[in-house]
User: Fold these one by one.
Assistant:
Number 1:
Amino acid sequence: MTDSATEERLVTGYAGRLLVAVSVGWLAIQAGRLVLSPSLPAVKADLGISDAQAGFAFTLLWGLYALLQYPSGRLSDALSRKTLLASGLALVVVGFGALASAPNYALFLLGAAVVGAGAGLYPTAARALVSDLYTEKRGRAFGLHTASGDVGGVASAGLAALVLAVATWRWAFLPVVAVALAILVSLHLWSREAYVFERRSLDVRDTADRLLRGSRFRWLLVAYTLYAFTWQATAAFLPTFLEVGKQFDPLVAQVAFGVLFGVGAVVKPTAGTLSDRLPRRTITVGALLLGAVSLAGVVLADSPVASVAAVVAFAAGLMAFPPVMQSYLMDAFPDDSAGGDLGAMRTVYIGIGALGPTYVGTVATAADYRVAFWGLVVALLASAALVAVTT
């Protein structure tokens, strides 16, 4: 926690050092998780596994990540932020080390499970810590922190390309382990909090009652779920839609995918800063509407240039939403349960949002990609309407 007299500096001072540390930690976790996707063909060939086996490894990693969001937030409230952050980073280091050295599929799955658990413990506690550290600059701080994950996404693409060109896929995890370990040591040295290891109740019923009985949080959860559904569906199928559905060159699909993360790295801190000065509802509704209109443009565009331009606008709208909405939620949650409340919402919207790729794949098989993506446009419009009438 910051002393009341301490300025809310974003890079220096106690708050700034911790913000940089937890953000770089999140960058490393995201880079490590996302580097698996471009490395997958090499992983499958090396381990001799099928697409189904590879898919199960991803499901295990992302499923544990979603499941542990609430316990992480709740325990960071009851114990300390430092306890959960350090535990998450320690598991991430062990998990990525296991992935890098796995001689067979069984140990690869074990590494994926450990990474999923560590990644699940980290982000909600990190966001709760950012909320502890900042009040006047909370939106800006959330913007910088969440943008670090997008930088990790961009880094994963470059890391995979470099490593696969000169070595094997296993080497891609070594810099991730090194950075995560350095952040673990930094948090241990810099944080003023103590480590607390005690048995605590998760109070699932109380949290559910608080979030579901109040109409404001209930409908905001629905709105965030629609957003997450769209984001995960787009992240999974946008390149395939452009390459297979529109018959564009694979390079166009790769550029468009990279744009999602590159734009996010710029837009998130910008949107967070604006939300400290303008009404958060105005920014969130505007971001969702921009995302919906631009995604419609992606569907309608008939040239690579127009499609990539529409993706840029879509990414700007989509990526402006999380830091502003999370700042709004942390403003609204009770102080003594903010981490747990955010974690519970993250468990729900990430978990249900994971059905987005299944939706697109199913609709594309039964009809085509355009029909599936029109459904995502509707989801964003519904999310915007819910935020507009609820906040």
Note: The two ends are 28 Å apart (CA to CA).
Number 2:
Amino acid sequence: MLAKLTSKNRITLPKAAVAQADAAEYFAVTVEQGRIVLTPVRAQQAEARDKLEQLGIEEQDVEDAIAWARR
């Protein structure tokens, strides 16, 4: 299966690939060893991620907070 990246950074996922994954409207996007990985997330999780991004809170901030709380 192939997907093409358009000039506007859009990708249409093949139906066969989407059918094999959990039904989701939102996906968490990570880059692992040069690969783009999409992980289905629930809408509530996506909204929470958007809120954290708007507040400027990054993953390292959360890790630091957890380490501080465990002291």
Note: Residues 7 and 69 are 45 Å apart (CA to CA).
Number 3:
Amino acid sequence: MKVGKLNWDDLKEIIDGSRKVRRDDVRIRSGVGEDCSVVEFGSHECILSTDPITGADANSGKLAVHINCNDIASCGVEPIGILVTILAPENTSLDEIKEVMKEIGEETQKLNVEILGGHTEITRAVNKMVISCTVIGKAPKGKAVATSGAKEGDDIIVTKQLCLEGTSIIVNDYKNKIKDILTEEEIEEAQNYTNYLSVVNEGIISGNFGVNSMHDITEGGVLGALWEVAEASNMGFKVYKEKMPISSITQRICRECSIDPLRFISSGSMLITTKNGNELIEILKKEGIKATIIGKIIKGKGILVDKNIEKEVEPPERDELFVLEEKMK
């Protein structure tokens, strides 16, 4: 099998085939595009999500915190606790594990998230360190936003810039191979993209504003996230390539490395659908968060408009990061 997430047909078959119990107190459960489950506890509900870090070497602790807390934020609520599992190969030093946990501690402190527990193990089962985290959030009953709530006519918003995570991984893990593409100043700027990977603020703001759906943009990039939102909501979309917010540094890297930036891992950017896009953008702007309307939710298929040519968007396959890794070997 190819490296990367399973395709949605295979994953859906596995999920549907393994779910033998459906409890009444589970309000939102796993499915296409739903990264979180929501469990009711009386007047409140618990939001849970889990994800590993496998595609990066540098900043893996920082990435592990943010990709998981971002999932909780995509429900419009604040993450409150994290459990951390580290599986490391035999050649790992204690200092390396300490460094990862130092990163995790620093990032959780910024987000006011407590490390609740976890597991650390040296094992022959992996050839590089794997960090897997589970994060929980808490909200009043019925508040958590589902990915599947997009409505026809919704504005589609993305926050900040696309490909922040993917760009930062490339410049940190493959610096020697991209030194002829970027200047030292540009490399340093792109390395600092890791400081903008959290979407917790925009998630909470959007949740309080009242939006129909949210999804943090991870593997598969913005087109993968759009497809997942549309599939979960039984809707389509029409978005415009020229409206996609992508930095000049990212554009140059993607062009030189033959990467499609619209299918490139993009933690740090939230996908939001709402009836009042311009109003939400102004609120986010006042909080120092850039946001851009890239299209609309429609009935039917997912459409990308590129220079007035409409192209149907296919289901997400493996992220461009994994394609690049094979080229870099």
Note: The first helix runs from residue 8 to 18.
